[in-house]
């Protein structure tokens, strides 16, 4: 059993198992496959910092995207990025208010921005939710974003797992845009410029705004409630600023 930690005075903790996707999502998850690279990614470092704040080391577990939620629900991992649970029977919990509603102040805000070809000269203020009802929008395969955009009536192409493959499809005119969830609007911009120069640009308005939670397996939470609540509080207090600082560091910005 993992011990509930409250800082330097608490007993040493067994490593908490944090699961996340084994596909690269620059700059949040770096590299592909089960191996965790030396620079694992912005979100991975944020997870480590959050648990370090309560004195607990992190064991990172990379899984195929479709297995992350199953592993969280079953208890094969303890913590993972998650959306709002569908119902009370879901095997994981998120930060909630005293009344039991999702506590968005203790979540990470995500914005699905859209990248388009510069040569198409789309106005920067184009509304992607309208434009991509009649134009093809690439989204990474297996993501919740793809499900939400399809449900909203957008023309979604989610045939590829890779952001770079989808951006290549955009460049080759096989789709008209590419969208993925970002936590700071410019997080991907330096990598786009490095790879594509000025061929690709980003629209100003996100196509979807949502919350990403640090979900906790239900049984793990019940055994370690104080520890998990402290981590959620840390996310609420420091998550956004820490993400911005980490994103700049990964991009090589001062």
UniProtKB/TrEMBL annotation:
SUPFAM superfamilies: Periplasmic binding protein-like II
The protein's name: Transporter substrate-binding domain-containing protein
Species name: Duganella lactea
């Amino acid at each position: 059993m993992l011990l509930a930690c409250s800082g330097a005075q608490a007993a040493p903790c067994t490593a908490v198992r944090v699961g996340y996707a084994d596909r690269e999502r620059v700059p949040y998850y770096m590299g592909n496959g089960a191996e965790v690279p030396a620079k694992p990614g912005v979100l991975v470092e944020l997870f480590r910092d959050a648990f370090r704040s309560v004195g607990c080391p992190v064991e990172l577990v990379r899984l195929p995207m479709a297995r992350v939620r199953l592993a969280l629900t079953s208890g094969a991992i303890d913590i993972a990025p998650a959306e709002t649970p569908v119902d009370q029977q879901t095997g994981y919990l998120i930060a909630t208010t005293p009344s039991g509603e999702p506590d968005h102040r203790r979540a990470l805000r995500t914005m699905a921005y859209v990248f388009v070809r510069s040569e198409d000269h789309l106005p920067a203020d184009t509304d992607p939710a309208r434009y991509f009802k009649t134009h093809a929008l690439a989204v990474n395969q297996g993501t919740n974003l793809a499900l939400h955009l399809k449900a909203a009536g957008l023309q979604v192409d989610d045939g590829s797992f890779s952001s770079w493959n989808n951006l290549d499809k955009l460049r080759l005119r096989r789709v008209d845009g590419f969208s993925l969830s970002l936590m700071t609007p410019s997080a991907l911009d330096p990598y786009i410029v490095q790879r594509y120069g000025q061929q690709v640009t980003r629209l100003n308005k996100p196509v979807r705004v949502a919350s990403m939670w640090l979900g906790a397996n239900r049984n793990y939470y019940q055994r370690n409630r104080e520890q998990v609540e402290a981590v959620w509080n840390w996310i609420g207090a420091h998550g956004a600023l820490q993400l911005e600082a980490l994103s700049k560091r990964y991009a090589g910005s001062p």
